[in-house]
Amino acid sequence: MKVLVVGANGRVGSHLVDKLVENGHFVYAGTRRDNLTSSSNNVRYVHIDLLASPEAIAENMYDAEAIFFVAGSKGKDLLKIDLNGAVKVMRAAEHKKIKRFIMLSSVFALNQDKWNQSFLKDLTNYNIAKHFADHWLINNTKLDYTILQPGVLKEEPGSGKIDVNIDYPSENSIENVVDTLVQSLQDPNTIEKVITMSDGKTPISDALRNL
Amino acid sequence: MKVLVVGANGRVGSHLVDKLVENGHFVYAGTRRDNLTSSSNNVRYVHIDLLASPEAIAENMYDAEAIFFVAGSKGKDLLKIDLNGAVKVMRAAEHKKIKRFIMLSSVFALNQDKWNQSFLKDLTNYNIAKHFADHWLINNTKLDYTILQPGVLKEEPGSGKIDVNIDYPSENSIENVVDTLVQSLQDPNTIEKVITMSDGKTPISDALRNL
After folding, report:
1. What would the pLDDT profile of A152-170 be if each residue is shown by its tens digit?
2. A189 lies in which domain range?
3. Which spans in chain B are helix H?
4. What region does B143 belong to: left with phi over 0, alpha with psi -120 to 50, or beta?
5. Which stretches make up the NAD(P)-binding domain (chains A, B) (predicted)?
């Protein structure tokens, strides 16, 4: 499948591009940087500027059939990037009639009652931005969304095993998150689902099949 | 009527409280400060903390029959106050079944195409916060809203005359904005309307009646 990764040079995005190619997909790797080239025939860098208009963003989506949104400002520009940037990409996707939209969000972003927990306490602004982006995707678009909400990300090898629909916070290896994103694309059971996750005990494909 | 003003000590709110009393209303004056008292029998200060939960906010709405949201962080806490604080008040209003909700927004907050105009260029983060708050009120609540969107506010006496549904920016005396808010409460024709405005040529009541 041809897929667009928005935030392709990020902490998650760079691994996601590689894993998608390993799984046989062709990747439009969207970043705000220009003139990047890939050594892989299955990756084409495209210019996606989240400060541009939805129309300008749509132009560089080409013939992508699905979109991953894994961009983030690391707290530096939450309103323009994490919130409005995400919504612009949704609008562009609708304009291009690209239905499948897989969003990397954050654990409990839709559950404000949990934001007082110690591990989230310094992240309220981030959570608000993700909250309104997730909410828009669910309620203000007709996209076939999957929203993946892991907790803290760690630069560690993946176990291939996760827990889903968690109600306690826990760590996530980036590889597990990336594998879950890729397998979400391949499993229609993830459509219209919001999935909290952490490293855990169930093989990813089983966890998604039994959502 | 008994009305709640959220942001009652602000630049607009303080004038709004006075004008509402002049027009025969009883005002719950909502601020985050505690233990304030008014010299007027028709004003009661209530503690409204926009960082608290919607349930806690609802508790201090008492028997208000309509709500004005005129709070703002002046750019200092846009995600928590101008966006999520506003939405919490909407949720609290729905919880309390207070249907009438009058929002002070900002010119073109729902029209991103205009945010590149010079007078708005430094206000993108503010516009994003107001955009998502306005959008929530329209699309994610069943409240009887009026959204008033003036441009730049000036500390000047009002002329009592405005232009509405403007497509160019212009100045607004705070008194004109306050008078328009009060008259919106009294004119059901303003329900489910988004009203851009500036100081202008038409008496306020006529402008609202002919929306």
Report:
1. 999 999 999 999 999 888 8
2. 2-209
3. 13-22, 54-59, 84-95, 124-139, 174-186, 204-209
4. beta
5. 7-188
Instruction: Give me the half-sphere count of Cα atoms (radius 13 Å) on the Cβ side of residue B180.
Output: 38
Q: Is the pTM of this model over 0.90?
A: yes
What totals of helices (H) and strands (E) does chain A contain, helices first? 6, 11
Residue with tokens 């630049």: B11
Which tokens sit at A117? 């927990």
Per-residue pLDDT tens for B49-99?
999 999 999 999 999 999 999 999 999 999 999 999 999 999 999 999 999
- The complex scores an ipTM of 0.94
Of B83, B131, B136, which has the smallest distance from its Cβ to A128's Cβ? B83
pLDDT in tens, A57-104: 999 999 999 999 999 999 999 999 999 999 999 999 999 999 999 999
Residue A91 C-alpha from the chain's centroid: 16
B119: CATH:
3.40.50.720
Read off the pLDDT of each residue in A119-124 and give the average, rounded to a whole number.
Answer: 83
Report the alpha-carbon distance of residue A16 to residue A178 in Å, rounded: 5
Taking alpha carbons only, the member of A209, A6, A204 closest to residue A101 is A6
Instruction: State CA A163 to chain mean position distance.
Output: 18
B152: contact with A, CB 8 A cutoff: no
Count of domains forming chain B: 1
Contact (CB<8Å) A79/B139: no
Residue in chain B closest to A127 (alpha carbons) equals B79
